[in-house]
Design brief:
This protein is α+β, with helices and mostly antiparallel strands. Helix content is 26%, strand content 25%. The strands form 11 sheets. The protein has a 5-stranded mixed beta barrel with strand order 3-4-5-7-6. The protein has a 5-stranded mixed barrel with strand order 8-9-10-12-11. A hairpin with a 5-residue loop joins strand 30 and strand 31.
């Protein structure tokens, strides 16, 4: 490769090669020095770098230019357009632009005779097999369509509002379209009534006046908040109707018998779940190990519903389950991965009934470490159905009629075994973020009653740690048998995010010296230093945002958050397709009978499944989060003008996002409403700082706000700030360097860096909300259905 063209200016390939050879250390100055460029050449160099960033060949973060994060071999992507040669271009569906810069472009190769289901067009979402493009190809990746998952949308979704004279308006459900209504003529209502959720075809768009639409489908009435989840279900195309073939298979399914199974019916396994759980897919038991060589140790049994017995590979039930990927939990309903005949009946470990299970027997040493494990296909009978609070009350000396007889023979050994396992857990030192989980409780009419933060009990931790042990055992067994599987993986934070975190912690005088390999313990030390301090929630939030996002993968790169080298989801096959794959693999590896993973399933095909269910998981999380936002907005809509206390949960150039203490609701304070002075966005501090007064509004600050607007359909709230900002020394930053106090040319209250203004980022306008991500930490199980938002580990 030649460094320079004949003109003496470096080629694009040479510049990219230099950036790749020096990851994270290259800026415009270094490139100019490497190629001997003069000041006059800088304009052309910057133009080339902009082009490389625009097409995704390189990423620009601050002053550094680097190669963008690599794509996995299989990726879900959205087809965004065509190039000048007419070839399709795509971008990955799941991409963190804050961490990895602009999403890389993928040029799609279309064969002369495409396979059925692979004919894609602009606007479609497809599963792609991708590889790096050869040098000079013009895009970083080339790909081929494995299958089209979702075709381009040609319709809008919204709430129909009838007008007295006939016809009506469409109120869009998309936050990006909030405030942009659509006119529907009297003859185009399709029989829709006021409050119906409808899909509408766009009929006319003009540069003035309202666009017009025609109702194509009535999707249900939203007369009460109980139907609010319908919006998310339809907006995200979450399948809620099973195919007739799948329903027939579910009705024809048979209860498991003792044939080909070990008889565990006399082992007093118990289920411990949330009080409102409809399905019970895991049961536990513990007893002291009688082996004299393991004095003080325990035998722990974890039995998981044998869904693979009822849902066979390639069946209609299997196809429907893969399409869903997981169950979706809303405050008022569940959209299950499997029909109720399977999830709530045949495969649910209800007490007193014989049920098939795939079980693991684990020997725990006196130090809490797992010494050995073995897997068994069994017939079991649950001894009791308990909820977390009920089990905890019993062990704390407050048993009821159900738990009284269970305390000594069942609960005490479980808690004793957990105490040992916790020793090993503490030694492993996984990431220990304090992230309270809010749960929305509804009244009988579907309206919000209240929002609570359930107490975190040892009963929850007991089940989680036993599930983690079982998940690790499954991954270890399949690796030992050299069978392909789907891992649950969580990458370590990027160097860029670690650097940003360290810079932020400097503003709080907190050390963050990284020495050696990155480990969760490094973050835990920081979290421990701030425990009990006023800014503890702030630091927890910023540490969370520095973390990568967990996903499913057929290739193992470990689980950083749990500090585990190998980890798979095994414990919830009723509600997660990944767990069903692991069950089938174990059945095949150990020769346990029917329902095994087919020989045709390879690392490549499982990679495709992993990419697909990672996307369905994100879809479920987003739908659950949006539904909670809409319910809370409905709840607060009649309290306009009321004052609330909250905490700043996000800081952007658009303004401040505030999470209310009472309900956990999020809302925006536009930067233009903060006052009469100019506010600068300080990325290192996660703050907006007044250029005249030095008043600072920072992530994590406790503030008083007034509710000034609520948009229930969009789930959006707008606040007015009542609290004053913190003071910092004028003209001096926390680290001792000089701070610029020169006024900008922006309007009062707007960041001078935000040329588009607040509406471009708020819930009431286009683009990203700018809200920080928060955690949904489900290491082994969490079936409340009211999960924490954002990242899932």
């Amino acid at each position: 490769m030649n460094k320079k063209h004949d003109s003496g200016f470096p080629s694009r390939d040479a510049i990219v090669a230099f950036i790749r050879a020096n990851p994270g250390n290259i800026g415009t100055r270094e490139i100019a020095r490497e190629f001997g460029l003069k000041n006059a050449d800088r304009v052309e160099l910057k133009q080339i770098l902009r082009e490389l960033a625009d097409d995704g060949t390189v990423a620009k973060r601050g002053r550094k230019i680097l190669e963008p994060a690599a794509l996995p071999p299989t990726v879900m992507a959205d087809i965004t357009g065509r190039d000048t040669d007419g070839e399709l271009l795509a971008a990955p569906t799941e991409w963190d632009t804050e961490q990895d810069g602009p999403a890389p472009k993928i040029r799609i190769h279309v064969p002369r005779r495409p396979q059925p289901g692979t004919a894609a067009g602009v606007g479609d979402r497809a599963l792609l097999r991708v590889e790096k493009s050869p040098d000079g190809d013009g895009t970083p990746y080339r790909g081929r369509v494995i299958k089209v998952v979702d075709h381009a949308r040609t319709r809008l979704l919204g709430i129909f509002r009838a007008l007295p004279a006939g016809g009506g308006r469409l109120i869009p459900v998309d936050k990006k379209q909030a405030g942009r209504e659509l006119n529907i003529a009297k003859d185009d209502t399709g029989g829709a009534e006021d409050g119906d959720l409808v899909s509408v075809d766009l009929v006319r768009t003009r540069g003035y006046g309202l666009a017009s639409g025609k109702v194509k489908e009535r999707l249900g009435s939203l007369a009460t908040e109980k139907a609010v989840s319908l919006i998310a279900i339809h907006a995200h195309d979450i399948p809620q109707v099973f195919s007739p073939a799948a329903l027939r298979e579910a009705e024809d399914a048979q209860t498991a018998t003792l044939k080909g199974r070990e008889d565990w019916r006399e082992l007093p396994l118990v289920t411990i779940d949330p009080p409102d759980a409809k399905d019970h897919d895991d049961a536990v038991h513990a007893a002291p190990d009688p082996d004299p060589n393991n004095k003080g140790g325990f035998i722990v049994h974890v039995a998981i519903a044998d869904v693979a017995f009822c849902v066979r590979p390639g069946s209609a039930l299997d196809r429907d389950a893969l399409m869903r990927g997981n169950s979706v939990y809303f405050p008022d309903r569940v959209v299950p991965m499997l029909p109720e005949r399977i999830s709530n009946d045949l495969c649910s470990l209800v007490p007193g009934e014989p049920r098939g299970a795939l079980a693991v027997r684990m020997v725990i040493g006196h130090d809490g470490r797992k010494r050995s494990h073995s897997f068994h296909r069994v017939l079991m009978r649950s001894a009791a159905k308990l909820n977390y609070a009920q089990a905890q009350a019993a062990i704390d000396g407050r048993p009821d009629d159900t738990t009284g007889p269970l305390v000594e023979p069942i609960l005490q050994p479980l808690y004793a075994a957990y105490a040992l396992v916790k020793l090993a857990r503490d030694e492993r030192d996984p990431l220990d973020l304090d992230l309270p989980e809010r749960k929305i409780l509804l009244k009988s009419d579907g309206t919000v009653d209240r929002v609570v933060v359930p107490e975190r009990l040892d009963a929850h931790k007991l089940i989680e740690e036993f599930m983690i042990l079982a998940n690790v055992a499954a991954a270890e067994m399949l690796e030992k048998k050299a069978l392909p599987l789907i891992y649950r993986v969580h990458d370590e934070p990027s160097q860029e995010k670690v650097h940003n975190l360290a810079e932020f912690l400097k503003t709080l005088d907190l050390p963050f010296a990284k020495a050696g390999a990155l480990r969760p313990a490094l973050f835990n030390r920081v979290l421990g230093q701030v425990r009990g301090e006023d800014y503890e929630p702030l630091v927890n939030e910023v540490v969370l945002r520095s973390q990568a996002q967990a996903e499913y993968s057929s290739e193992n790169y470990g689980h950083f958050g749990l500090n585990l080298r190998r980890y798979a989801h095994f414990t919830s096959p009723i509600r997660r397709y990944a767990d069903l794959i692991v069950h089938r693999a174990l059945i095949r590896a150990l020769g346990l009978g029917e329902g095994a993973l087919p020989e045709t399933e390879t690392l490549e095909t499982l990679g495709e499944v992993a990419a697909q269910i990672s996307v369905t998981e994100r879809r479920a999380m987003k739908a659950e989060r949006e539904t909670a936002d809409r319910l809370i907005a409905h709840f607060l809509a009649d309290r306009i003008g009321a004052s609330f206390q909250g905490r700043i949960s996000g800081v952007t150039r658009a303004g401040l996002f505030v999470k209310l203490s009472e309900t956990g609701a999020d809302g925006l304070i536009p930067i233009r409403t903060l006052g009469t002075e100019y506010f600068n966005y300080d990325e290192a501090r996660h703050a907006l700082i007044g250029t005249r007064s030095g008043a600072m509004h920072r992530l994590g600050d406790v503030v008083d706000v007034r509710l000034v607007e609520a948009a229930p359909v969009a789930g959006a709230l707008r606040f007015e700030l009542l609290s004053e900002g913190q003071s910092i020394p004028r003209g001096r930053k926390r680290d001792g360097s000089r701070a610029s106090t020169k006024p900008s040319k922006a309007r009062p209250g707007r960041s001078p860096n935000d040329k588009a203004g607040a509406p471009g980022h708020s819930k009431f306008g286009k683009g990203k909300s700018g809200k920080g991500k928060s955690a949904k930490f489900k290491p082994g199980k969490s079936k409340s259905g009211k999960s924490k938002k954002g990242k899932s580990w």
